[in-house]
C-alpha cells in the first residue's frame, strides 16, 4: 500500500503476470470507517492462433493450455478473443479458450468457414476437456526483452547456436507476436522459432512479402529441422 496523504491509499501491483488480469476489490479500513472500490485489470496484448507441427486439431484443453504457456502466453479469454476480432482477427480453425469453450472469429462469412451467416465469434460451446481436440487461441502481452533477426541459411540447431552466441535464445511464438504488436517489428524474412516453426512479422504489407493485404505474422509452417534455408529470431532480456 502507498499513502499519498493521510486519507489516501493506493494499491500498487508490481511484476504483473498474464494470469493477474481480472477483477480486484480494494478495501480500506480506518478505525470505524471503511471504504472499498472494485476495479478491473485488463492487460493490453495480442491473441494468436496456435497449432503444433502435427497439424490442426491436436490439443485437448490441458494440452492447449500447456502449449500456450510454452510459447510465452496463456489461453485467451473470450473477452480477449472478441477484442482481437474487433481489431481484425479472422480465423477459420476452432480453438480452446481459457473458460473451456471452443470458438473461432470470422470477419468475412464464407461457406468453408461455418457458412454464410453473419460475422462474429462462432461457438462450439463447452466441450469435453480431455477428449475433444482443437487448436488453441493464445494471449500474450508486452515483452520485457526484445526480439531481433539473425540472417543466414541456418538449420534449427544452427539457429539455437546463433542466438546463444549473441547472449540470447531462439524466440518463442509469443515473443514474435508481441514484438510485432508492441515494437512494430517488420522483417520480410522467414526465421526459425523455438517450436520449430518458421515465421516472419509484417507491419507494412507490400508486394513479395507474404502476399496478404493486412499486417500480421506470416508462417511457413514447420519445415524439417535440418533444412538450412532460414535465419532466426532471437530473444534477449
Automatic annotation (TrEMBL):
Residues 46-140, 143-236 form the Link domain. GO terms for molecular function: hyaluronic acid binding. The keyword Repeat applies. InterPro entries: C-type_lectin-like/link_sf, CTDL_fold, Hyaluronan_bind_Proteoglycan, Ig-like_dom_sf, Ig-like_fold, Link_dom. GO terms for biological process: cell adhesion; central nervous system development; glial cell differentiation; positive regulation of neuroblast proliferation; skeletal system development. Coiled coil: none annotated. One of its GO terms (cellular component) is synapse. It is found in: Secreted, Extracellular space, Extracellular matrix. Disulfide bonds join 92-113, 188-209. It comes from the Eukaryota. Its main location: secreted. Keywords: Disulfide bond, Extracellular matrix, Hyaluronic acid, Immunoglobulin domain, Repeat, Secreted. SUPFAM superfamilies: C-type lectin-like (SSF56436), Immunoglobulin (SSF48726). Belongs to the HAPLN family. This is Link domain-containing protein. It comes from Bos mutus (wild yak).
Amino acid at each position: 500500500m502507498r499513502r499519498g496523504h493521510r486519507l489516501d491509499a493506493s494499491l500498487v501491483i508490481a511484476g504483473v503476470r498474464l494470469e493477474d488480469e481480472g477483477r480486484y476489490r480494494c478495501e480500506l479500513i480506518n478505525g470505524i470507517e471503511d471504504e472499498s472500490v472494485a476495479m478491473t485489470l485488463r492487460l493490453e496484448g495480442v491473441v494468436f492462433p496456435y497449432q503444433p507441427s502435427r497439424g490442426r486439431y491436436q490439443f485437448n484443453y490441458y494440452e492447449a493450455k500447456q502449449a500456450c504457456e510454452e510459447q510465452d502466453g496463456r489461453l485467451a479469454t473470450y473477452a480477449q478473443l472478441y477484442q482481437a476480432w474487433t481489431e481484425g482477427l479472422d480465423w477459420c480453425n476452432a480453438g480452446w479458450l481459457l473458460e473451456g469453450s471452443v470458438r473461432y472469429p470470422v470477419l468475412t462469412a464464407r461457406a468453408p468457414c461455418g457458412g454464410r451467416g453473419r460475422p462474429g465469434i462462432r461457438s462450439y460451446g463447452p466441450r469435453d476437456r480431455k477428449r475433444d481436440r482443437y487448436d488453441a487461441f493464445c494471449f500474450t502481452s508486452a515483452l520485457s526483452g526484445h526480439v531481433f533477426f539473425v540472417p543466414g541459411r541456418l538449420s534449427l540447431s544452427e539457429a539455437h547456436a546463433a542466438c546463444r552466441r549473441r547472449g540470447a535464445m531462439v524466440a518463442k511464438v509469443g515473443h514474435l507476436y508481441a514484438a510485432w504488436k508492441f515494437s512494430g517489428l517488420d522483417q520480410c524474412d522467414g526465421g526459425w522459432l523455438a517450436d520449430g516453426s518458421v515465421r516472419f512479422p509484417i507491419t507494412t504489407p507490400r508486394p513479395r512479402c507474404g502476399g496478404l493485404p493486412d499486417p500480421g505474422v506470416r508462417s511457413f509452417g514447420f519445415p524439417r529441422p535440418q533444412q538450412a534455408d532460414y535465419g532466426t529470431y532471437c530473444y534477449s532480456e
